[in-house]
Structures are given as structure tokens and as C-alpha cells.
Amino acid sequence: MKTIVRLALLTAVLSGSAAAQQAPGASKEADYYTITTFEAPAPDVALEGGAIALLPDRKIAVCTRRGQIWVVENAFEHPAKPAKWTLFAEYLHETLGLAWRDGWLYAVQRPEVTRMKDENGDGRADVFETVSDAWGIKGDYHEYNFGSSFDPQGNLYTVHCLTGSFTSEALYRGWVLKISADGKMTPFACGVRSPGGIGFNAAGDLFYTDNQGAWNGSSSLKWIKPGSFQGNPNGNIWFDYAGGAIGDRPKNPPLTEQGSRTVIERDNIATYIPPAVVLPHGKVGNSPTGIVPDLSGGKFGPFAGQTFVGEQTHSKIHRVFLEKVNGIYQGAMFPFREGFDSGNIGLLLTDDGVMFTSGSNRGWGARGTRNWNFERVNWTGKVSFEIHEMRARPDGFELTFTEPIDPASATAAAFTMDAYTYIYQKAYGSPEVDQVKPKLTVPSVAPDGKSLRLTVEPMTKGHVHELRLAGLKSAAGLPLLHDVAYYTLNEIPAK
């Protein structure tokens, strides 16, 4: 294995990120978070990782799109030691979910949730049991199923892509299902299009990532409120099979096939939940994937309690700050780390502050040039100068920072903002529309320099507020490592 170090100039060519475009000698992502790449168990093994799980004794399980599950030892060693790989299971069908519970390893594959264990101690699974197969498959290549980890009650959750990502030609395509410890399936939410991952935030609420397409103007991170409609109506034909588990089928369809907006449909469809955080398509990525909360209590750096989201096409990981306003999730996406070897799909962040990612570029393509990757991210102990949180206020936003800022640099000229939204429509995706150019002022900076208030006129409900802070400096004179944030304003707080 090797530790990947990217020169700032090379990374700028690959991605054009704000961090990469800093002058030579300026801070770069690798100063704060290193990437360690693991080689495959053998030259003929393609670790196209779909999900990652932590096992007892600090072993790591990686499931692949090719239907194998590998267990790796020595994955945590830092400095790196040669990894020891064991093939735990094979001949599964495109596994995209892994979870460990009570001596069993659970895998989410296309036709079912399977649990398995090694009873004779040879390192290979020899007992396989079907936990649930309560959904249908037509056999379309795009009928991906993703699985979560377990919640405290012993449930895991599966999210099911539409057939071909446009139609629902098999039972519960376009739905989220809850699978109990005894295998009972309960419909949980509908309206899914093309998921890339499912997981929890630090508060224990469930989210999934959906990709740009029909009824999805841009890719996004979505809150799966129980019983909610997530925006794509094509899978709603299965309500007669749901037994009332999530109520009645939404009575109102989207108002128009052309020209609607999420703020309009929220009033039209009672169960519709808007995307919590829009991930502007093309700007920050094209295919969001795995979701993990930072429960390390600071062992992974200054972002404890926040959420990390994988990105397949751009071979990145995003950082997300979430807050609830008027009972609805919303928040900001920030760049975090780029330069991975392939397209990140599976994501794991351990409680002791070590992140793993694995992925593939087959079928989709990725900026990372390898066909697959299994990589580890470690915090170096240094704290980068970043926006820490971005909270909505009635008249703007409150920004906090990881390091004190230079108050003299916190003038209105240091900030620029564009606000826009997307068309909610049957057609594939959407351009940015309804553009607004807010007026910005900085009425106050906290005495300790760690936060400021930014007034925004107007605040536009339903819009992404894209904030750039190219002129802001830390008290030590450094620019922000990442000088952009994308806040999705579903609700404007009253106070």
C-alpha cells in the first residue's frame, strides 16, 4: 500500500477546486487529512466496493459490486503495514450494503437481505440465511439496492432504485423499506428515484442520497421522514401493497410536468419532504453516495456531529452541516477531500476517528483513474481554517469558523452570494433557475473572532444560497482552505 500525496497544481487540473487553486506553498487538503491506498488481495481481484462495515477485533468487511465480501486485517495500522485479506463470501448479486450484528454479517444485495456467519472458524462464511426478500426485481441493470447500518432497535433500512431509474416495473421499486431483526418488512417512505447510499446523521435520523434525473433537478441529500414522499411519483403504484404502513397514496401529483418548484409542491403534496441539502450538479459532483456521521467526539478533527457524504463521479467526499428549522432539515455542503483513486461509493467512519472509502468507476466513470479503490483517511491533528457551521437566521446566516478570523477582512467585499433553485419536472434534471443576487452586509463579528453574522437581502425560501468568501482571512493571515458553501434554505427561521 502507499500514501497518496497530491500536488496542489495537479489537483487543480483534475478538479478546479478552490483549495487546489491556492498559491504554491499555501495549505492543501493533504496537510490535514491524508489518504492511504490499499492494494488488492491479488492482481485479478477488483475491489469495486459497494459498502464497508466494522467487524469485531478491528477487522473491516468490504462488499463489492461483483458479489464478493472481503475481510481485511491491519487496515488501521498507521504507518501502514501490509493488509491481510480473506475472502469471506462470494457469488452474491451486486452487494451495496453491509452491517454487523450479534455475530452475523448482513449484506444487502439485489434480490434480498442475507445474513451470514463463519461457524467452523476457517474465515469463510458457511451459513447463509435470507432475512428479507420482500421486494421485486425485473432484472434491469439499474435496479440497485442500498442498505444502511442498524438503528438502536435492530432495524436496517433498504432504498431501492427505480427500474432503469425512470419506471417502477417491480414491487417497491422507488421505496425505502424497514427490515426488522426478525426479518419483518415495513414500507417506510416512497418517492425515490436513483439512490447512491443510505445512512444516519449524528441525531440518528435517516437520510439517503438521490441523483439528478426525473423530478430531481439536482442531486441531493434527502431526509427520510417516516411516511414521506421524496419527490418522484413513479413508484407510487405500489401503495395497494403497503397495507397502509405509510398512509394513503399522495392524493395530489406534481402540479405540472413542466415548470413547478419544490416550494410549490410542498403546499400541494402534504407528505412531500424537500431535499435537505442540494448538491449542485456539476459544481460539486454528479453522483452522491455513502452517508456517515462523525461520532468520534473530535478524534477525526473539528467536525464532530456533522455528516460526510461520498461522491462517485468526482472521486470526492463532502462535509455537510445539518439543522432543523420549523421541523424540516436543511443545511450546508462544504468541500472536504478530493483526490481518491476511483469513484467513492461505500463510506465508513469509526468512533475512534478513522474513515474508509471504497468504490468503482464501472458504468459511470470517475475522475479517479483506477477501476476501483479501497482507501483510508486519517486526520493529521492539524486544524484547517474552514467554515465550521452555517446556520440560517431570519435575516441571513451565522457563520462559525474553526480558527479566529481577522475582523478587518470581514467586510462585505469579502463575500459574494448567488441564490437559485431548480425546476421540479418530469424531464431529466434542470438548469439553475430563478437566480437572485442578494445584497450582503456584515453587521457583527464575535469578540473571539470565531463567528460572524451575515445579513442577506433577500433570503429566498427553496433556493440554494451559494456563498463564496475569497477575501476572508484568519487571524494568522491564511485564506480559507475551502472558500465556498452551498446552503439549501427550505425554511426561514422566525427568530
> Could you tell me the radius of gyration in angstroms?
22 Å
Widest sheet: strand order?
Answer: 19-20-21-22-33-32-28-29
Number of domains: 2
Label the overall shape: globular
Largest sheet: 8 strands, antiparallel
Total strand segments: 33
Task: Bin the helical content.
Answer: under 10%
| Uncertain parts | 1-24
Number of helical stretches of at least 4 residues: 2
Cα end-to-end separation: 52 Å
Task: Explain what this protein looks like in three dimensions.
By secondary structure, the protein is mostly beta strands. It has two domains: 32-379, Neuraminidase; 387-488, Immunoglobulin-like (Sandwich), CATH 2.60.40.1220. Helices cover 3% and strands 38% of the residues. It is built from two helices and 33 strands. It has an eight-stranded antiparallel beta sheet with strand order 19-20-21-22-33-32-28-29, with no helix packed on it. A hairpin with a 5-residue loop joins strand 30 (439-445) and strand 31. The chain starts with a strand and ends in a 7-residue tail after the last strand.
